[in-house]
Amino acid sequence: MALKLNPHVVSPSRKLTSFAMPPVANVGLRSPRFFMASTLRSDSREVGNSKKPFMPPREVHVQVTHSMPPQKIEIFKSMDNWAEKNILVHLKPVEKCWQAQDFLPDPASDGFEEQVRELRERAKEIPDDYFVVLVGDMVTEEALPTYQTMLNTLDGVRDETGASLTPWAIWTRAWTAEENRHGDLLNKYLYLCGRVDMRQIEKTIQYLIGSGMDPRTENNPYLGFIYTSFQERATFISHGNTARLAKEHGEMKLAQICGTIASDEKRHETAYTKIVEKLFEIDPNGTVSAFADMMRKKISMPAHLMFDGRDDNLFEHFSAVAQRLGVYTAKDYADILEFLVGRWKVEELTGLSAEGRKAQDYVCTLPPRIRRLEERAQGRAKEGPTIPFSWIFDRKLKL
Ligand SMILES: [Fe+2]
Ligand SMILES: [Fe+2]
């Protein structure tokens, strides 16, 4: 695991839970192209008075750029008509889309204050650990500028002008616009419920957008769309689980909110997995190699550089709570991988090159290996520490 290479950023919780980047470092060889850059932030003091105007990202890998051979850009150009017919259909017209206001008290209505009071009463029944997970999910959604930037790093599919009319660019802008409602809705719910420290949360969002993300997709749309396929499914699972738990806590409105967001993620997953399915059809060797490459590097979660100005291991701590509550776990990571292997019929690929066959074997045998390692890690796991979360006014939670 990448983080383990630097003692400054290893938290005790990391040994217990590692869903974001399961401990599969021993499973495959890390490409020699990649090694860790030094960690730029190593203490955990409040940095409010720091002389540095911006916090650097906590850790980034050596940045590999433009790893797709230039001639393959033609593949994406030749897919324009296909993408228009097959991908844009997964966007919903704005007039048919839900908006955050559909789920929230209407500030223009006479009943607003009463509706807010009711919302706050219902939210009182929900435990702190649930809120920490919901906040982490919301912060992840709120870093949307980073994800649109990431999509626009991808060679052959980026939005070259900001209003480009290629189907890829139309998709990316409309996808962003759909996603934008997720953070909006969760943010407004959390604001109204009165259970969380909004200022700390807002700082976390500002830090995170400033830090960006390091998905190691190398401007390479093969890697990029494999990454987004994985991520959309991960968010589908995670929002689905926060919906289920909200229902268990009797907050049906919040369950509906999280469930509605989850169904958007599912639709996005369908689109991204379809792109990769098509790439498998056109270029099976290149696509299976990209899949193996992405999985060797491990899928880092989009908010892995999260920081609130206090907790240097905030992402690991949030992840530990998400794992304990079953919102997103190491098992989910292996399940998603297994799902994608099946979705893209990777086992059934024939006629591959030697390198392709090696990549095929790697990804097809990876899910059970991840599960075995995770079970072993769970068996060794000691009781987690109890730590404060600034998002809930420094109340402490067990990891
Ligand atoms: Fe989302
Ligand atoms: Fe999404």
From TrEMBL:
Enzyme class: oxidoreductase
Locations listed in the record: Plastid, Chloroplast
GO biological process: defense response; fatty acid biosynthetic process
Residues reported to bind Fe cation 2: 179, 232, 265, 268
Catalyzed reaction equations: octadecanoyl-[ACP] + 2 reduced [2Fe-2S]-[ferredoxin] + O2 + 2 H(+) = (9Z)-octadecenoyl-[ACP] + 2 oxidized [2Fe-2S]-[ferredoxin] + 2 H2O
UniProt cross-references to Gene3D superfamilies, sorted A to Z: Ribonucleotide Reductase, subunit A
Pathway the protein acts in: Lipid metabolism; fatty acid metabolism
Enzyme Commission code: 1.14.19.-
Cofactor note: Binds 2 Fe(2+) ions per subunit. Binds 2 iron ions per subunit.
One Pfam family of this chain: FA_desaturase_2
Residues where Fe cation 1 binds: 141, 179, 182, 265
TM stretches of this protein: none
Necessary cofactors: Fe(2+); Fe cation
Family: Belongs to the fatty acid desaturase type 2 family.
This protein's name: Acyl-[acyl-carrier-protein] desaturase
Gene that produces this protein: LOC115739037
